[in-house]
Amino acid sequence: MVEGMRILLVEDDVLIGMMLVDMFDALGLPEPAQATTNEEALAIIGSESITGALVDINLGDEKGWPVADALAERGIPFAFTSGGGDVIPPAHAHRKLVTKPFRIGDIEAALESFR
C-alpha cells in the first residue's frame, strides 16, 4: 500500500466508519481523516492535504455531491460508496463506486486507484 497517503473518509454511519478504519489498519494505512457531513468534509478538504477520498453518496438527509465537486476541483482522486440504487451525476459518472457491504479487497482496489 502507498505510504504517505492521507485519505478522507466521508461516512455518516458511525459503525461503518469504524469498520472502514479497521480495514485501513489491516491494509497498513494510517487512520483516515473522517467526516460525517458535507460541511465537515469541506472543512477538512480546505485545511488538510488530502491524497484521496471515499465519499458516501447518502449522508443522512444530504448527498455527497458538494464534497465530490470540491475534490474534483482540486484534482484529488476519490471513489463513491453507497448501499446501492444511487444515480451518480454525469460529471462524476466515471468515478469508481464501492458498494456496501464493503469487502477489504474492494476498498484496497479503490485506494490503489488513487496512485
Précis, in short:
This protein is α/β, with parallel strands linked by helices and 115 residues long. The chain has helices at residues 14-26, 38-47, 65-73, 104-112; strands at 7-10, 33-35, 52-56, 58-59, 62-63, 78-82, 97-99.
Topology:
Blueprint: E1 7-10, H1 14-26, E2 33-35, H2 38-47, E3 52-56, E4 58-59, E5 62-63, H3 65-73, E6 78-82, E7 97-99, H4 104-112
Parallel strand pairs: 1-2, 1-3, 3-6, 6-7
Antiparallel strand pairs: 4-5
Describe the protein in words.
The chain is α/β, with parallel strands linked by helices and 115 residues long. 36% of the residues lie in helices and 21% in strands. Strands 2-1-3-6-7 form a five-stranded parallel beta sheet, sandwiched between helices. Strands 4-5 form a two-stranded antiparallel sheet. It is globular and about 35 Å long. The N and C termini lie close together (10 Å).
